[in-house]
Design goal:
Protocatechuate 3,4-Dioxygenase, subunit A, Intradiol_RC_Dioxygenase, five-stranded mixed β-sheet, 294 residues, globular, alpha/beta, single chain, binds 3-methylcatechol, 13 strands, six-stranded mixed β-sheet, binds fe (iii) ion, 29% helix, 8 helices
Length: 294
């Protein structure tokens, strides 16, 4: 593709391979790969259990060679489309998150998903996320307060926020969007309060033209996640929480393809009371200290 051609593309003209490859590159570049150190005993236990589970399925369901070869072709395509992050985050991460958050008091978490980008622009509260001129969508004022589990205000707290635009696309994963559109790191004030001006994201459909979309089509499933705002909240000396917040009434709250909706994560937006356009919503965060358990 030439530069001029690329420059005229719209956000909805991206491909699964582009989005997937970026997610794969980002994960590889994040340094997570280099640091991973799983003891031999755990590798043997977990890989052994996974292999046994799949073999058991082959027996239980009398898997044919046709089906085995379809599986092989599909797994190869997941890799060439760069969709391993998407596949794992959609169909497995929710269980990993549940297992690992059971003992943490305070704010409820959910999956990170494949589209987090670290080191987004730092903004003091009250903040306005980066938007285009004439950015479409309903204005949303999102505000809240940080406390510890004893109700004391937290010092040095921050909200990392990222979400899709009103067409359901993420900056850095769809073409032609400003780099930090709807991404920011908002610093709360000394009493733990924060305010973020943004716009309501649209529901998100995972790419339909890649391996994950092919599976969804072949199985007759749907590809939708309900509209959501991704968040990472943290404060010095406290446990980081990764979560997403959702909007009441979304048709896919009850059948999120990524199984990442929890009742505690449902927002309650109201018309703005200060005369501004759009909606406002309050969501407060209780963070647990390092090492604190339920
Ligand atoms: C998303 O935006 C997302 O949040 C998840 C979990 C998977 C795919 C796209
Ligand atoms: Fe998302």
């Amino acid at each position: 593709m030439t530069e001029t051609h690329a420059a005229t593309r719209k956000e909805n003209e991206g491909t699964a391979v582009e989005a997937g490859s970026k997610a794969t590159e980002r994960f590889t570049a994040s340094g997570k790969l280099a640091k991973l150190d799983v003891p031999k005993e755990r590798v043997s236990l977990l890989a052994g259990a996974a292999i046994k589970a799949i073999n058991d399925i082959a027996v239980e369901h009398q898997v044919t060679y046709e089906e085995y070869n379809a599986l092989k072709a599909w797994l190869i395509k997941v890799g060439t489309d760069g969709e391993w992050p998407l596949f794992l985050d959609v169909w497995l991460e929710h269980t990993i998150e549940d297992v690992n958050s059971q003992e943490r008091p305070g704010a409820v978490g959910t999956i990170e998903g494949p589209y987090y980008v670290p080191d987004s622009p730092v903004l003091p509260t009250p903040a306005t996320l980066q938007m285009r001129e004439d950015e479409p969508g309903t204005p949303l004022l999102f505000k809240g307060r940080f406390t510890d589990t004893d109700g004391n205000p937290l010092q040095g707290a921050q909200v990392e926020i990222w979400h899709a635009d009103a067409n359901g696309f993420y900056s850095q994963y769809a073409p032609e969007l400003p780099e930090w559109l709807f991404r920011g790191t908002v610093k709360a004030d000394e009493n733990g309060y924060f305010e973020i001006n943004t716009k309501r994201p649209a529901p998100y459909q995972i790419p339909t033209d890649g391996a994950c979309g092919q599976l969804i089509g072949a199985a007759g499933w749907h590809a939708w996640r309900p509209a959501h705002i991704h968040i990472k909240v943290s404060a010095p000396g406290h446990q980081l929480v990764t979560q997403q917040l959702y909007f009441p009434g979304d048709p896919h709250n009850a059948d999120d393809i990524a199984s990442a909706v929890k009742p505690e994560l449902m927002l309650d937006p109201k018309p703005r009371t200060d005369g501004g356009a759009g909606e406002e919503v309050v969501y407060d965060y209780v963070l647990a200290k390092e090492g604190q358990t339920k």
